[in-house]
Design a protein that fits this description.
Shape: globular
Number of domains: 1
Number of strands: 12
Structural class: alpha/beta
Helix content: 25-40%
Radius of gyration: 19 Å
Strand order of the largest sheet: 3-5-6-7-8-9-10-11
Strand content: 5-15%
Distance between the termini: 19 Å
CATH superfamily: Metal-dependent hydrolases
CATH architecture: Alpha-Beta Barrel
Order of helices and strands: EEEEHHEHEHEHEHEHEHEEHHH
Number of helices: 11
């Protein structure tokens, strides 16, 4: 077994239990909160998150991977308030989330910039993993980067290569937000291969937004896990089609390479809550338990394969901590 860092201390990988591998507590815009009243009560959001996390824990989920990083408003103090008030194992991530450009801090530091020098992102990521985030003592257990419809922009590429270097140095697994409809998972697999990353230690996130069996099996055949991790976001792919796609892949023998989650956040200040309620009425931390798992069973997916996707695969991902 391997120890896994959580917000409230390390746990044995064998005790992770059912794991939601791609969720958020709070997705925030820090510069707006510090300057304008955007109608967000953070204390109320923490209280709501505590209620919702307790609810999903009572439903049988033991571990919650919060993939909020720089660029999505990671706030370790808010996350810790939730973790300390619940019995959920909460694993946090490090990395940087961008579809296009980097924050201006990095425009003048690092390779091929005005003043040059080594890549500062690598040191930031490694410090979060090995020492902890700021002075919190909370160590990150996952690395994250992103690619979306704009493709492999200079900022996206630089971030992904920094994530790859940090992964090779620390052994912490990688998850990458991808844009399934442009098959950008293939792009990231090529980049990580160039950087010497073992693709079996990469999760190609949001793959479940596609029902293209050929694309999905190609990602898994190359070695990666795929995230069927936007359950409830029916605006990208409908509920029935998501369930049908997962069931079809299980039938083909791919349960050992899929992860189930929802990419939900108690508070996401990027999105208007009224519009969200209309567009994604079932989206919540409980959607897997209430809707997806019953539908998968009805489609012929057995509990052994469900446990493989929710328990065994996450445990195996966290147990691979050897460096290169």
């Amino acid at each position: 077994m391997t120890t896994v860092p959580t917000v409230t201390g390390t746990v044995d990988s064998g005790s992770l239990g059912r794991t939601l591998m791609h969720e958020h507590l709070f997705v925030l815009s820090p510069e707006l909160h510090g300057n304008w009243d955007i109608g967000v009560d953070l204390d109320a959001a923490v209280a709501e998150a505590i209620t919702r996390v307790r609810e999903v824990h009572a439903a049988g989920f033991d571990t919650f991977v919060d993939l909020t990083v720089v660029g999505t408003g990671r706030n370790i103090d808010l996350i810790r308030r939730v973790a300390e008030a619940t019995d959920m194992n909460i694993v946090v991530a490090t990395g940087l989330y961008t579809y296009m450009d980097l924050p201006h801090y990095f425009h003048y530091r690092g390779p091929d910039t005005l003043f040059g020098g080594p890549e500062p992102m690598v040191d930031f990521f490694v410090r979060d993993i090995e020492e902890g985030i700021l002075d919190s003592g909370v160590r990150a257990g996952m690395l994250k980067c992103a690619i979306d419809a704009p493709g492999l922009t200079a900022g996206v590429e630089r971030t992904a290569r920094a994530v790859a270097v940090a992964h090779r140095r620390t052994g912490v697994p990688i998850t990458v937000h991808t844009h399934a409809h442009s098959e950008s998972g293939r792009v990231m697999q090529r980049l990580f291969t160039e950087e010497g990353v073992d693709l079996s230690r990469v999760i190609v996130g949001h793959s479940g937004d596609s029902d293209d069996i050929g694309y999905l099996t190609a990602l898994m055949d190359a070695g990666s896990y795929i995230g069927m991790d936007r359950c409830g976001v029916d605006v990208y792919l409908g509920f029935e089609q998501r369930v049908k796609t997962i069931a079809a892949l299980v039938e083909r023998g791919y349960a050992g390479r899929m992860l189930l989650s929802q990419d939900y956040a108690t508070l996401n200040d990027w999105l208007d809550p009224q519009m969200l309620a209309v567009a994604t009425p079932r989206w919540s931390y409980m959607h897997l338990h209430n809707d997806v798992l019953p539908a998968l069973r009805e489609a012929g997916v057995g509990d052994t394969d469900i446990d493989r996707m929710l328990i065994d695969n996450p445990r195996e991902i966290f147990e691979r901590r050897d460096t290169y």
